[in-house]
Amino acid sequence: MKKILTSTIVIVALLVAFTSCNNSGKSSKNGALSSNNAEKVYVAPGEHDSHYAFISGGYSGNLTVYGLPSGRMFKEIPVFSQFPTNGYGYSEESKPMLETSYGFIPWDDSHHPDISQTNGELDGRWIFINGNNTPRIARVGLRSFETEEIIEVPNSAGNHSSSFITENTEYVVAGTRFSVPVPQRDMPIKDYKGNFKGALTFISVDPEHGHMDIKFQVLMPGFNYDLSHPGRGKSHGWFFFTTYNTEEASTLLEVNASQNDKDFIAAINWKKIEEYVNNGGGTMMPANYAHNLLDEATHTTTSTMKKEVRVINPSEVPGAIYLLPTPKSPHGCDVDPSGEYIVGNGKLSANLTVHSFTKMLDAIENEKFAGEAYGIPILNFEDVLAGSVEQPGLGPLHTEFDGQGNAYTTFFISSEVVKWKLGTWEVIDRKPTYYSVGHLTIPGGNSRKPFGKYMFAMNKITKDRYLPVGPEMEHSAQLYDISGDKMELLLDFPTHGEPHYAAAIPAEIIKENTLKFYKLADNKHPRKATNDDETKVVREGKNVHVYMTMIRSHFSPDNIEGVKVGDKVFFHITNLEQDFDVPHGFAVIGANNAELLIAPGQTRTLTWEPKQVGVWPFYCTDFCSALHQEMQGYIRVSPANSNIPLKWSMGEDIE
C-alpha cells in the first residue's frame, strides 16, 4: 500500500511539475522574448522580409533601409551627408548634389520620409525626405536606392513639416518650422511679431521622371509650422499644417510659446491656389536656391542656381486658407484613410482632438468664424470638432491608421502607444514603449490603403535595452503585431542616427523593379572607358585625367608614370562588370577625401593631389574575388620640375 501511495505521489508531483512548466511557457508567450514571438520575426536564411522600412537618420543626414519583421538593416542611403562608405559627396559626380546657395554643405538633419503615391496608394517609385537645417527636399529613386535629386527651399528655416506628398504625388510640401524675415534682411529680433513670415512651399513632381520644381510658396503668419499631412479621399486638394507659437514669441519659447489655450491647424486649399497660379496669379520674388539633379545616363549630378520663386499672400486667394483652433501646442497632424478625420496631437493637452473635414466645409460655407489672424478666417472650435479621445496618455505626438477603423497614437511622456477607435473615440488597447517614443509607422499608414499587420515605434532613449556602449546609445525601434485586437510587442532593434519618422511598404511593390547593374551600353559618362582600348592618361596643363577600367581582378592601366607634385589627378574609373552585386572599390594613398565604391557598369571620378615624391599604391577596397588582394597598381610621382613623360602599362613593364 505504501508503495502504491508513494508511486501515486510521484506521478502527481510529475504532473504538477509538467503542468507548471507548460503554464510558465504560456505565460512567457506574452513577453517580447517568447519563442512564439521569436518565430514571428524570424526570417530564415535565404528568405526575404515581407516589408521594407525606410527610416530617417536624423542628424546623420541619411536614410536607412530595414527589413520587417526581422529588423535587419540592409542599407544606408546617403542623402544630405558625405558618405565615405561609397564616396557619395566625395566623387566628382556626386559633389554637386550637396551644393546650396550657402556653398557646399556636406550635412543635414533628415526627418520625414514619404513614399510616392498613385490614387492615394503607395506606388514604390520614389521616396522623398527633408533636410531640416539647410532647407532642402531630396528624392531617392526606389529603383536604384540612390539620391537622384535635391532642391533647396528659399525663404524657409527649419524645414520640418516636410516632406509629405499629395495622393497622386502632384506635390511634395516643405513647411518652415522657424519663421524668418521674408525676404531676409537685417532687423531687430524683438520686432519678430508681425514682421516674420512662415513659408509653406509646394513643390511639383513630374509624374514620369519625378523631377521637382517649386510651383509656389504661401507666405503665412509668423507662427512655427510643426508637421503636416495632405488630405485624401474626400479631402484631396487640401493640406493641413499644425502650428505652435501663435503667440509669436521670440525668446524663452518653452514658456512664452505655451501661453495660448489653443494654437491652430492651418487648412490650405492647394487646388484653389494652384488654379490661381495657373492663371498667372502670385508674385515672382528674387531668390537664390540650388536645384541638383542626377543624370542616370552620365552618372553625373548637375547643380543649377535658381533666381526667383513665386509667392502667394493669403489675402490674394480668399477662401483658400482657414485656421482650425487646436489645443495645445499641437505637434503631429494626421489624416485618416478616408480623409474625413484630421487628428491634432496637442503636446500639452490632456485629450486628443479630432477635427471633421465635413464639418469644416459646413462651417466655411456658413461663415462660422470666430475671428481672423492676419486676414485668415479662424473657425469655431466646436463647429469643426469631430470628437475627443479623453485622457488617453501624456504627451501625444503622432497618429497612424491601420485601415480597419483604428488609430494608433504615440505618447512621449508616458512612453506608450495607444490604440483607439475612429468615430467612438474609445481607447481599445495600450502598450508600453522603451522609452520616450516619438513617431510610429504602419506600412501605408498615412495613405488611403494601410497595410495593417505591423506597427513600429521609434524611441528616443534606449538605456537598458541593449549592451552598453558608452554614454550614447543608438536609438531603439520596437515592432508590434497589430493584426489582432490587442497589440503585441515582437522585437527591439537598434536604429542609426536619430530616427524621427519612417515610411514602410510591402516588399513586393519594390523588389522586382530594383536595378541590378548599369548597362555599359547605356553609359554616357563623358570620360568613361568601357574597354581596354579606351583607357588612357591625358595631361591638360596641371590636370591629369586617367581613363581607367576595373574588372575582377585588375585595373587598366595598373601602373602610371609622369605625374608630378602639384598636379591634380582625376581617376575616371569604369566598373566593367555586368553582374548583380559586384561593385569594386578604389583608393589611393594620400587622398584627402574618401574611397569610391563603383557599381557594375558605372563610372565614378576621384580627385587626388599628390604632395610628395614617391611611388604610391592604389587598390580595390571591396573584396571582389579570390584574387582581390592582387587588384592593385602604382602611380609614380616625380618632382614638379621633372621632364618624365606620361606613360602607363596594361600588364607590361613601363619602358
UniProtKB/TrEMBL annotation:
It comes from the Bacteria. Its EC number is 1.7.2.4. One of its GO terms (molecular function) is nitrous-oxide reductase activity. Its main location: other. Keywords: Copper, Metal-binding, Oxidoreductase, Signal. Pfam families: nos_propeller. Residues 1-25 form the signal peptide. It is found in: Cell envelope. InterPro entries: Copper_CuA (IPR001505), Cupredoxin (IPR008972), N2O_reductase_N (IPR011045), Nitrous_oxide_Rdtase_Sec-dep (IPR026468), Nos_propeller (IPR041114), NosZ/Cyto_c_oxidase_sub2 (IPR051403), WD40/YVTN_repeat-like_dom_sf (IPR015943). This is Sec-dependent nitrous-oxide reductase. It comes from Gelatiniphilus marinus. The lineage of its organism: Bacteria, Pseudomonadati, Bacteroidota, Flavobacteriia, Flavobacteriales.
